[in-house]
Amino acid sequence: MSRRITASTRLAAVIGDPVRHSLSPALHNAAYASAALDWMMVAIPAAAGTGSAMVDLVRCHDLGGLAVTMPLKSEVADAVDRLDPAAAALRSVNTVVADPDGPLGMSTDGDGFVASLRSAGHEPSGARVVVLGAGAAARSIVDALGRAGVASLAIHNRTASAASEAAGLAAQAITVDEVGLVQACAAADIIVNTTSVGMGAADASGDMPLGPELLSREHVVADIVYHPLATPLLVAARSVGADVVDGLGMLVHQAALQCLAWTGVEVDTAAMRAAAEAELASRHR
């Protein structure tokens, strides 16, 4: 069924470069439809250097909100009037909210990951967690897990300085080398892959971010990669009886938090996931 677009329809946009591949329009438009919200999301290609101009579109009420992707997250953090605590800690914004006091910059990625764990029945509070990687996604996840009250966070990354920087975002976090990773995995409740290892893997024999011998049925294994949904890591985890959380969960829940920030309405994450899965399937037929 086609949607009726009127002069009253509020417009949100996902911005970045490249952005035509983004699943955000599929996610958000499914959310708006399921909640009968008169909103619509489009994708706007926006190159480096245009972050401030895009924020001005929110400031002038031309756009109801922005979902921000690379390479604009830091630029937008500098251009908004205020930052929420997560965005301030990360100096990175993935969401701009049209607020009466001026554009508000938020970071919903980490909290979206925590929400995806909880939605799958896994409470991070009090858990012992291993995080693989120390890039932007890892930083947001470490920050959110720290605020969620995990018991410990062990961060492993090829570049030790990046791991140390990420560890500074949570009081519970430490960095571990290869030897320490083995020990941390043995004690862990949750293992999280934030690297791109496994992305685009055609089958279960693809690369993995850690040895399968480190996985056990006692683990919850999460991967933020969502193409494919069944990454080699998750296939290996399932084979030993571990519970798994795929990468689409984080994407859906961070988008749901964006919708809530813009509209004040809690949207249907099941409808959002179904739309994202359909969009992915259409691209890879």
Number of helices: 11
Instruction: Please name the CATH architecture of the largest domain.
Output: 3-Layer(aba) Sandwich
Total count of domains: 2
What structural class results from the helix and strand content?
A: alpha/beta
Give helix and strand order, one letter per element, not per position. Answer: EHEHEHEHEEHEHEHEHEEHEHH
* Subunit arrangement of the protein: single chain
Main beta-sheet annotation: 6 strands, mixed
**What is the total tally of β strands?**
12
CATH fold assignment of the largest domain = Rossmann fold
> What is the helix content?
40-55%
Major β-sheet strand ordering: 2-1-3-5-6-4
How many whole angstroms does the radius of gyration measure?
A: 19 Å
Question: What is the name of the CATH superfamily of the largest domain?
Answer: NAD(P)-binding Rossmann-like Domain
How far apart lie the N and C ends? 23 Å
Stretches where pLDDT is under 50 for at least 5 consecutive residues are: none
Shape: globular
Q: How confident overall, as mean pLDDT?
A: 94
CATH class type of the largest domain: Alpha Beta
SSE layout and pairing:
Elements (H helix, E strand, L loop, with lengths): L9 E7 L7 H11 L4 E7 L5 H9 L5 E4 L4 H7 L2 E2 L1 H6 L4 E3 L6 E3 L2 H11 L8 E5 L3 H13 L3 E5 L3 H8 L5 E3 L2 H10 L2 E4 L26 E4 L8 H8 L3 E3 L1 H17 L5 H15 L2
Parallel strand pairs: 1-2, 1-3, 4-6, 7-8, 7-10, 8-9, 10-11, 11-12
Antiparallel strand pairs: 3-5, 5-6
